[in-house]
Amino acid sequence: MRILHLSDTHLYGDPAARHYDRIDTAAALRGLLARFDRIEGLDAIVHTGDASEDGTPGSYRLLHEILEPFAAAQGAALAVVMGNHDVSAAYGATIALGDRGTAVQDRVVPLAGGGRIVVLDSSVPGAGYGHLEPEQLRWLAEVLAQPAAAGTVLAIHHPPLVGATPLLRGLDLDGLDELAAVLEGSDVRIVLSGHYHHAMTGAIAGIPVHVVPGITNVVDPVAAGARERSLALSGASLVELGESAPRVATSVFPSAGDTLDAPGTPVYEFEPAQVAAILEAAGR
């Protein structure tokens, strides 16, 4: 399997809207895709959530207007995950219902080569952290009980890891032990996630986890120190699954949607007190 992994486009229904009054998110996505127009042999394009910033039907139509022609030109399947900024019911009403017939966007996306993408909706309405309900874990266990010929890729917005910064740790996925119990011994080859807006690797139940940088901005988890900072960059990853361990290559570029054209100037920089206020508003 060969997968282009994208995340965190934060699109708007209003074409005049700008993320942090600066980033044209649609231009950022289009510009990033233009850099990957020479990739060949893709089986899937996986977008791991925060597709929308405002959760509007227009933002989801825009996402598919941009991604579907790109995927079709590659002959690749398209899988879209819901994130904490998304509204699963709006996506379900605008694009497609989930496989369980509800507004929760859990689904299986089969691939031509015998693999599959299993999409899990970890969003919590009105909150920034991630959570999986018991019925979602039961559904996942039922799906994984029947292995795919070429293996499974699990796509979930909130990484099943511990975040690298105080803000991200406060917005993590809960219930990691319960998820690990379902994944143990399954045919899942890799878990793909977004949410953190920076590249990160880890593992759950012995399965590799890859977090892709954001498209609307890229977080600086190290040099920012006690602050939380992001830069006007866009990233994506190429994931290749064969007989050996997964291979992941990640590229980061200046954002094509930066209205200041200043990749070294932070998009935001939060002091610890601002971080505390964000976490309180996000449900923790």
Blueprint of the fold:
Layout: E1 2-6, H1 25-35, E2 44-47, H2 57-74, E3 77-80, H3 88-94, E4 107-110, E5 116-120, H4 134-144, E6 152-156, H5 166-170, H6 176-183, E7 188-193, E8 200-204, E9 207-211, E10 218-220, E11 228-231, E12 233-240, E13 247-254, E14 268-270, H7 272-281
Parallel strand pairs: 1-2, 2-3, 5-6, 6-7, 7-9
Antiparallel strand pairs: 1-12, 4-5, 8-9, 10-11, 11-14, 12-13
Helix pairs in contact: 1-2, 4-6
Main attributes?
25% helix, alpha/beta, Purple Acid Phosphatase, chain A, domain 2, 284 residues, 14 strands
Question: What's this model, at a glance?
Answer:
This protein is an alpha/beta fold. It has helices spanning 25-35, 57-74, 88-94, 134-144, 166-170, 176-183, 272-281, and strands at residues 2-6, 44-47, 77-80, 107-110, 116-120, 152-156, 188-193, 200-204, 207-211, 218-220, 228-231, 233-240, 247-254, 268-270. The N and C termini lie far apart (38 Å).
Structure description:
This protein has seven helices and 14 strands. By secondary structure, it is an alpha/beta fold. The protein has a single domain (2-281), classed as Purple Acid Phosphatase, chain A, domain 2 (4-Layer Sandwich), CATH 3.60.21. The strands form three sheets. Strands 4-5-6-7-9-8 form a six-stranded mixed β-sheet. Strands 3-2-1-12-13 form a five-stranded mixed β-sheet. A hairpin with a 7-residue loop joins strand 10 (218-220) and strand 11 (228-231). The longest helix is centred in the first third of the chain and has 18 residues, at 57-74. The radius of gyration is 17 Å and the shape is globular. The chain starts with a strand and ends with a helix.
